[in-house]
Amino acid sequence: MSDTSLGGTGGYDFQSTMWSLVLKAKDKREEALNQLFSIYWKPIYFYVRRKGKNVEDAKDLTQGFFIHFFESDLLDRVQKGRGRFKNYLLATLEHYLANEYRTAGDPARAALALTIATEIRPRDANALYDLACARAVQGETSKALDALGRSLEAGFSPLSHLETDPDLATLRQLPAYRELVERARTR
Questions:
Q1: HSE (side-chain half, CA atoms, 13 Å) at 158
Q2: DSSP secondary structure letter of residue 76
Q3: How far apart are CA 120 and CA 127, in angstroms?
Q4: Domains of the chain, first to last
Q5: 176: Cβ–Cβ under 8 A, 6 or more apart, which residues?
Q6: Do residues 30 and 9 lie in contact, with contact meaning Cβ atoms separated by under 8 Å?
Q7: pLDDT in tens, 133-167
């Protein structure tokens, strides 16, 4: 694979998590944020490259991911002791890639990326919900209902979104869908 000078001198491998640095970055300390970026840029870039993206697309996706990650305050959700930071980053990256694929009109690749994200973080209610939407758009009803059920069990909210999301329109008339929603409302 072609290399890039962006992201420092690191390589493919993710380093062990330096929790003191992550916690400083959560406090929006610029030096810590820059250090996290430089530590994880290359491993994320090479992960994207291994998905078949060319050098420039991988650079753009990696850069876009980090902008999204820091601007969306996704770092605020990280908690020491709730899993590996690498897994959180990769699940968040797969969710980001799924949104890029969906925007590009490729629901199959979006569903694949979301499947990977939910394998890494199986209780991520939002990723499971988005997977349900992607499967519903593809006409994969049973897979959509399964993902939706797991999303609701993981605490997806707001439930009112279920009634307005156009991606779920094909599911709304199904008894299994109504049962899932009713169960979620009674929790």
A1: 5
A2: G
A3: 11
A4: 13-82 (1.10.1740), 105-187 (1.25.40)
A5: 145
A6: no
A7: 999 999 999 999 999 999 999 999 999 999 999 99
